[in-house]
Hints:
This protein has helices at 3-11, 15-18, 30-57, 64-83, 92-106, 119-136, 140-157, 160-166, 179-189, 220-229; strands at 110-112, 115-117, 169-176, 195-202, 205-214, 233-239. The protein is of the alpha+beta class. A 4-stranded antiparallel β-sheet has the order 4-5-3-6, with helices on one face. Strands 1-2 form a two-stranded antiparallel sheet. α6 (119-136) packs antiparallel against α7 (140-157). The longest helix has 28 residues, at 30-57. It is elongated, with a radius of gyration of 26 Å.
Amino acid sequence: xxxxxTAKSLSELPIxxxxxxxLGNPAYTGWEVQLIFLLRILIAGGLGIIIGIERNxxxxxxxxxxxxxxxxxxxxxxxxxxxxxxxxxxxxxxxxIVSGISFLGAGVIFFRRENLxxxxxxxxxxxxxxxxxxxxxxxxxxxxxxxxxxxxxxxFLHSKVVLRKSRKHMLFVKFxxxxxxxxxxxxxxxxxxFHRFKIYKDGEQMIAEAVIxxxxxxxxxELCDLMYLHPDVLSVERLEDL
Length: 242
């Protein structure tokens, strides 16, 4: 049977059979089974892209391409595991996806100046692997609902309404230390105190570094005006929250 005839016969199969588990039925040809597997991999990759779009729009480390590959790979590993279940320990292939994807997730997590970044992205990659496994195992509806749920929760928690109520912005400031400059920064940014306060000597000057928590969002031009009017403020860096 050529590829065109196989595709035609595949299109005539009920949708429930396309995503069923009984692919060992002799009624299915080798090409039909392969195309069903390919369809599962494409669906898993598409669901991964949906999750990756939200991460990409927020300019995170893992975007659409990463989530697409993770979804496809997880589905492919699951299919291989199911195909080799009668040969030795073939089912252990799928079991290793969870631990294997953890190494990839760990690569996007880092801690810098009291700011933990990449944790949500790593969790998204981990969830994408689970979604790919569900599609590979023949559960696309469950995987699709899980994708929509994850996307909706992500968009809601990062919405302006929620962030305006709960988000604390973190600023890393560096300035020539004096009580006047310290009080100026506290008043300007509306904070109670400094965190991770550090002072060191640079020539004849005492340089201070600190992390400031503020609920107000300061734009770049405001920070530039502050540094222009007060030369003792050497730098202000805005640290991103996830």
